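Table S2 (continued). Query chain:
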Amino acid sequence: GHDGGEIAACLALQTLRDALAASVPKKASPGDAADPDATWQDEHMPAIVAVHEAVDAANARVYGANVQKGHGEGSGMGTTLTGFWQSLPGGPLVIFHVGDSRLYRYRDGELTVLTRDQTMYQQALEAGVSGDFPPRNLLLQAIGPTATVAPDVKAGMPRPGDVYLLCSDGLYGNTPHAAIENALAGAHAQSLEQCCHDLIALAKTHGSRDNITAVLAFVEH
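Corresponding output:
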């Protein structure tokens, strides 16, 4: 809803896509030389590092556009950025998240939120604040307004039958968790488009007045 938000989103996605396409991380093998200064080793770290670098590049692109237009630190256009990337077949999904869009996973009849809202509201909720809460749409960070950003990045293994839902706060903001869970109960590879339409209609039924975006992915094998 902010000025230039659609431009920021386009720049961020283009940069992220190009950075990940140029990165081909290989799965580390036991015979590879380990970093003696590292506190821990993880065979999927190359993919996680690639995602961190891609998000940094996306932020630098949008921030640079803000600077060119004379915007100071903390101002100018911005966008949330949430998604996942599988660098190798059979490998983990590397989840990345900045802002208040969400990634859900529907598995074995249960819907789980895989991201944490980076908002003042969520921060106050976790701190046990009583009384008045900040508005839900006040972000702690976004892609673009500041020179640096700290994305939440983690890896997890998908399973056949999993359904992943990427959505904006226009979908989950007013819609009960159980209603979203029920809408995904019948989702499979052939019905994802209809399920997206059903989710958008569901959000409207529950009074959403914000942008409603839903993207679904089904894990076949």
